[in-house]
Amino acid sequence: MSKTYPIGIQNFESLRNDNYFYVDKTKLIYQLARSGRYYFLSRPRRFGKSLLISTLEAYFEGKKELFRGLAIENLEKDWIKYPILHLDLNIEKYNSPDSLDKILNDKLEYWESIYGTRPSETSFSLRFAGIVRRAYEQTGQRVAILVDEYDKPMLQSIGNEELQRSFRDTLKPFYGVLKSMDGCIKFALLTGVTKFGKISVFSDLNNLNDISMDERYIEICGITEKEIHENLEDELHELARRQKMTYDEVCKELKECYDGYHFVEDSIGLYNPFSLLNTFDKMKFGSYWFETGTPTYLVELLKQNHYSLQRIAHEETDADVLNSIDSASQNPVPVIYQSGYLTIKGYDRRFGMYRLGFPNREVEEGFIKFLLPYYANVDKIESPFQISKFVHEVEQGDYDAFFRRLQSFFADTPYELVRDLELHYQNVLFIVFKLIGFYVKAEYHTSEGRIDLILQTDQFVYIMEFKLDGTAEEAIKQINDKHYAQAFNADKRKLYKIGINFSNKTRNIERWIVE
Question: Which of 34, 101, 112, 184 could cross-link with 117 by S-S, CB 3.0 to 4.6 Å?
């Protein structure tokens, strides 16, 4: 294979000079630059936002030679060099108020070394406005402002209202320069994972055009199936050969693993570019996106808000919720959606409601695996081994070992969870059986005070009923009274009916009986 894949490379100039593989997005970039002035784009991490910013930087610097052979080469006639102010907030860890101050001060000092300063410019916003004005006056060209990961300070301080307030008070007037210096600005794009609204940094920036759910720009980040076949057809055949799969099987596996992102209703699916390029680089499938780390603030949000995990695969909400995060909000759904763990699966036009779900198998399996150690009594290293043991026990018919292992997951349940024990049980069982369900067939249902579950392997069918502060006998009786086993009457596999009771007193599984 002759292609070199830009794994972790986000600088467009470096990518082009070193002849890395690039999917041409420059037609959309030209359209973006020519159709408006102020933009905001939200996309999940590792989705190409930084490369987009870097490509725009090269374009506004007039570096025509970098775009040779790309669509924009024939579209742009002028190639004017504009002054660029590029701020990347991705490089700092924001755990104190001065962490943001340091990075802003460092960037402003760098720009001031080029364009000068005035003694009266004492605040960040005054200094920024002065730099924009002087850059315009000194070059005769209006300024292009590019902000990468604008929301990093706000995201890293979720749950710390005092720190969020400090960052908000700093960023609001700083970003407000985009509005007050309109006459000196040619173009501005802010990118991030999330959009903070209402009382947050965006509340005064009503001149930003949010293209996150704009059909015209859906393909500006990410890779479409059409682009895969146009650019990587030979590599698809090579991947099939290496994985001992057919061409059709490889295309299907790629789609199931990495496709499925929808940022507007009824749109084409987008593949996660980071996972896709890693797959072709290594010529094997893997959970590449998850290996780069998942933010723990997502779990903190879910737990703080007593979120029922069973909702996560069929959550419903409207555009206002999807488009904006109020930093004081208690709703974890928009953060999970904008972070890329959920995507649009359907849309009810009559009521303007979006149905959300996991985009693909990599995200679904990776996210559920990630959650396990935060909810159950198991550490991160042991977590995958525990699931494999569960699966082996189910496949071998060893239900006693299975339930003893499950008991260990509930051991040391914190006392503060007593008030919401039912939700805690449901969440742990949901995670465990969701993970087992990636290897065997699983159906899981919950309702008030009870859970029923069906697990199916090649040799066994398990019908389980869980009770909270009832008895295992009552659970078995319910299986029989409701005729849960009826569907398997003609099945040749061995069938187990299992009644399980949780005790509030012991905060664990108290007893199970089998028929």
Answer: 112
Instruction: Read off the DSSP letter of residue 123.
Output: S
Which segments within 193-312 are labelled E, that is strand?
A: 209-210
Which are the contacts of 327, defined by CB distance < 8 A and separation ≥ 6?
Answer: 154, 158, 161, 164, 168, 196, 199, 200
User: Using H for helix, E for strand and C for coil, what is the string for 55-103?
Assistant: HHHHHHCCCHHHHCCCCHHHHCCCCCCCCEEEEEHHHCCCCCHHHHHHH
* Cα separations in angstroms, 314 against 252, 355, 356, 436: 23, 6, 6, 19
* Rounded alpha-carbon distances, angstroms, from residue 419 to 35, 238, 306: 55, 55, 11
Gyration radius from the chain CA atoms: 27
What whole-number distance in Å separates Cα of residue 21 and Cα of residue 78? 26
* Amino acid, single-letter form, for residue 344: I
**CA 264 – CA 278 distance, rounded (Å):** 26
Q: What is the 3-state secondary structure (H, E, C) of 445-460?
A: EEECCEEEEEEECCCE
Q: What type of residue sits at position 453?
A: L
Distance CA 322, CA 354 (A): 9
pLDDT 10s digit of each residue in the chain, 515 long? Answer: 589 999 989 999 999 999 999 999 999 999 999 999 999 999 998 899 999 999 999 999 999 999 999 999 999 999 999 999 999 998 878 989 899 999 999 999 999 999 999 999 999 999 999 999 999 999 999 999 999 998 888 888 877 889 988 998 899 899 989 989 999 999 999 998 877 665 466 666 677 898 999 999 999 999 999 999 999 999 999 999 999 999 999 999 999 999 999 999 999 999 999 999 999 999 999 999 877 667 777 888 888 888 889 888 789 998 877 776 665 556 788 888 888 999 999 999 999 999 999 999 999 999 999 999 989 888 888 888 899 999 999 999 999 999 999 999 988 776 666 568 888 888 999 999 999 999 999 988 877 656 789 999 999 999 999 998 899 999 999 999 999 999 999 999 999 999 999 988 888 999 999 99
Q: Report the amino acid identity of residue 233.
A: E
Q: Is 66 exposed, middle or buried (0-12, 13-18, 19+ CB in 10 A)?
A: buried
What's the rounded Cα separation, in Å, for the pair 479 and 473? 10
